[in-house]
Structure prediction request, 334 residues.
Amino acid sequence: MTTVAEAAETVPERHYTHHEERGVTPHRSNPVVIHRELTTLDVHEGMNVVEFGTGSGYSGALLSQLVGPSGQVTSLDIDAYLARWAAVIHQGRGVRNVECHDSDGTAGFASRAPYDRMVAWCTPPLLPRAWVDQMVDGGIIVAPLPIAAVPNMTVVAKIVVREGQPEVESVATGGYIEATTSPKGDLDLPGRWVDWENRVPAPSWISIAWRGEDDHLHTGARTALDRLLKNAHTEPYGQIDWPSWRTFAASLTDHRLTMAGLTPDMWAIGHTTTTTAAVIQQDGTILANAPDSPSLTVLRGWLHQWEEAGRTAPATYIPTLVRTGDSWDLRLSR
Prediction:
């Protein structure tokens, strides 16, 4: 059996990510986490594997080594440019057991099913029924899944399908770009659940879990974002363990949960209403509409509970898949 480390020694990573003809591919994941997810996937020689998110083609090349000449890999990407170039690069290296297709991976790929293993490098809004239906009994899925209805709150789940039903074996810190129905150009903006965004004078966005209570003009989202951007009260909190904090915040299942990007590369999580707003950023700065904001009181309470819980790691939460129509919603509890 070939290990992921052994496969990585034979696959030239930069040949895929920085190909001299195609150029640099920004749609790629960190090799360290790719190796981690593929180790969790536990691929054996001769298996039939599908991946969602072709990217540069590097992960598909690793899977090609892991399944060996008797196995097959199907690689799907919503971006035809990425899928076509990966296919050409694979062919140039003599890789014959990988097929690349431009397709919406959230529907799976029935023509090559059933699969022994499935891995996703993009985050669907729910665990799709199609993925479960296209797995063999005992098959393993490794995929990022949302743990709240706002962006960037995800864990990577290891799911085993038994008798047509998915069961989560474990979760780990991590997440990937949201799965979208068309190629994504702006990689800094979430692909869904953005309730309002500003493009001038500088990019910013907000996502409110209570969007169902907002009006058709997104007045609640707009004003909440405005309160956090203009003349906001600020106070320091200190160093924050972001994966632990966002997982804890998601586990509260509070419908006032809010995620925002107030500046580039700086996420914020907190509480908003139609009249108040308070969030804490990744750098440990708290922003609120006022020093006596009710949302700030709620946020301080959440942070206190988080500290009292010992800043628990995402892997220590209890994962549960909840059936939602034809899909499953992942929720974590302590």
Q: What stands out?
A: DSSP finds nine helices and 18 strands in the chain. The two ends are 37 Å apart (CA to CA).
